[in-house]
Amino acid sequence: MRSLLVCLCCVLLDLTTVQSRVLMQGRIVGGHTAAPNSIRYMVSLQSTRGQHFCGGSLVHRYWVLTAAHCNIGAEHMMIVAGDYIVNSFEGTEQYAKPHRLVTHPLYNESTNNADIMLIKLRAPMVLNRYVSLAPLPKQGTGVVEGLVCRVSGWGYNSAGGGRAPFTLRTVTVPIVSSARCNSSESFNGNITANMICAGYRTGGKDACKGDSGGPLVCGGLVYGVVSWGNGCGNAKFPGVYSAVSKFRRWIDQNIYRSHYRCTRY
Ligand SMILES: *[C@@H]1O[C@H](CO)[C@@H](O)[C@H](O)[C@H]1NC(C)=O
Ligand SMILES: *[C@@H]1O[C@H](CO)[C@@H](O)[C@H](O)[C@H]1NC(C)=O
Ligand SMILES: *[C@@H]1O[C@H](CO)[C@@H](O)[C@H](O)[C@H]1NC(C)=O
């Protein structure tokens, strides 16, 4: 998969570290354009040259939740909140550089297990009509098979380095049980307890290249982070997401660490 990236000609960016859904073709598959600023906690992770490469969710004024495989190095990244059409200035955007990246300690890039990362921003985002915080599920809460969720993203300009404006897109997909997703008919043992799957039996609707790190929202809560798949919209292979509810405690511990220290002593 890594070799595909050579065509991007990103001299400054070592994008070879960005795997999985960043590398796939196309954008949100089978979906439609989202209403302007309707998903206000959605952020775009961009290179310092303004190229969108992953999505994310603002979970605190200082913190973004995304996928671990979106880690291209803090010095190469810019976080954009309040965006609707990436690569087009609309006056609603807020920009922040990362202060530090916190990749999950169990992240394994060969199995995609624990593909989750927090980004601490250097300056807080201002909450307003265009920027809000994403509500997260409680630790350990599950989603039932068939529950219809929504995934959104800006996808990727597959021409690599192109500048055409991209509007936020969104598509609904039902949850697929881990048993079916992990079966020999599908991902054949590669699904861990830290992953959830979503997609139609007939395929056709899915997240794709450049949607990585973005939110899968079920009942108003961000239950999934776009992680990996096998093609996009393939009937045999649903999209695979990091299960946010398995990491809720880890998220809170990182965000409120200093607070915990203060209250404990
Ligand atoms: C990643 O998972 C593979 C397969 O289970 C294992 O062999 C490898 O040691 C793991 N790598 C890390 C860094 O944990
Ligand atoms: C499961 O993972 C193994 C080892 O990484 C890989 O060879 C195999 O192709 C994967 N199968 C599916 C269906 O993803
Ligand atoms: C998927 O199958 C593998 C191999 O049988 C197993 O180790 C793993 O625990 C299964 N995942 C889930 C979520 O049950």
From TrEMBL:
Gene3D superfamilies xrefs: Trypsin-like serine proteases
Chief location of this protein within or outside the cell: secreted
InterPro entries: Peptidase_S1_PA (IPR009003), Peptidase_S1_PA_chymotrypsin (IPR043504), Peptidase_S1A (IPR001314), Serine_Proteases_S1 (IPR050127), Trypsin_dom (IPR001254), TRYPSIN_HIS (IPR018114), TRYPSIN_SER (IPR033116)
GO cellular component: extracellular space
Residues covered by the Peptidase S1 domain: 28-256
Localization, UniProt: Secreted, Extracellular space
Keywords recorded for this protein, A-Z: Disulfide bond, Hydrolase, Protease, Serine protease, Signal
GO MF terms held by the record: serine-type endopeptidase activity
GO biological process: proteolysis
UniProt superkingdom: Eukaryota
SMART domains: Tryp_SPc (SM00020)
EC number: 3.4.21.4
Pfam families assigned to the protein according to its UniProt record, in alphabetical order: Trypsin
Family: Belongs to the peptidase S1 family.
Protein name: trypsin
Source organism of this protein record: Labrus bergylta (ballan wrasse)
